[in-house]
Specification:
CATH architecture: Roll
CATH superfamily: 2,3-Dihydroxybiphenyl 1,2-Dioxygenase, domain 1
Number of strands: 11
Number of domains: 1
Helix content: 10-25%
Order of helices and strands: EHEEEHEHEEEEEE
Structural class: alpha+beta
Distance between the termini: 30 Å
Oligomer: single chain
CATH topology: 2,3-Dihydroxybiphenyl 1,2-Dioxygenase, domain 1
Largest sheet: 8 strands, mixed
Number of helices: 3
Radius of gyration: 15 Å
């Protein structure tokens, strides 16, 4: 398993990028089925991307924003064996989200885990990579805090969740 992305829920992708000096060569995509606007910002060569999520109409992201406010939404984890990965997370106390089998949750943990099978942004999964031993260095995120605090640290300064 490898970390593919860190998803942050915001009220405005454009404002979040402008206020935090984030840039992407990709356009913002709109998904009617989930009621979201999404933008990936690439990390460095070691992997990991930042995914900015903005609700765009009714859907799971608007419900999450209404319930918890802006901030960390989920960690996207790529695996080459979805069933085995899900079983490992469930054995550690995580539960399959009833609305989507791709997401896992644990009561008291204010973020989700998204599992998916296949390629990461960097290409095929390395057979020896594990989530526990994979080091992800994302230049835009020096550390991440979640819960009641709605901020992410970036190079010593705090990104405000909008």
């Amino acid at each position: 398993m490898v970390l593919d992305h860190i998803a942050v829920l915001t009220t405005s992708i454009e404002r979040f990028c402008a206020e935090n000096d984030l840039h992407s060569s990709e356009p913002i995509e709109t998904f009617a089925d989930t009621g979201s606007r999404e933008l990936y910002i690439d990390g460095d060569a070691s992997g990991g991307r930042l995914l900015l999520l903005q609700p765009h109409g009714a859907g799971p992201y608007q419900r999450a924003l209404d319930k918890r406010g802006p901030g960390l939404h989920h960690l996207g984890v790529a695996t080459d064996d979805l069933a085995a990965a899900r079983a490992q997370w469930v054995a550690c106390g995580w539960q399959v989200h009833p609305a989507s089998g791709a997401f896992l949750f644990q009561r008291g943990v204010p973020t989700l885990i998204e599992l998916f099978e296949g390629m990461t942004a960097l290409g095929p999964l390395a057979a020896t990579a594990t989530l526990a031993t994979t080091s992800v260095r994302f230049p835009a995120l020096a550390g991440i805090r979640c819960g009641a605090e709605t901020a992410v640290e970036r190079g010593g300064r705090v990104l405000q969740m909008l």
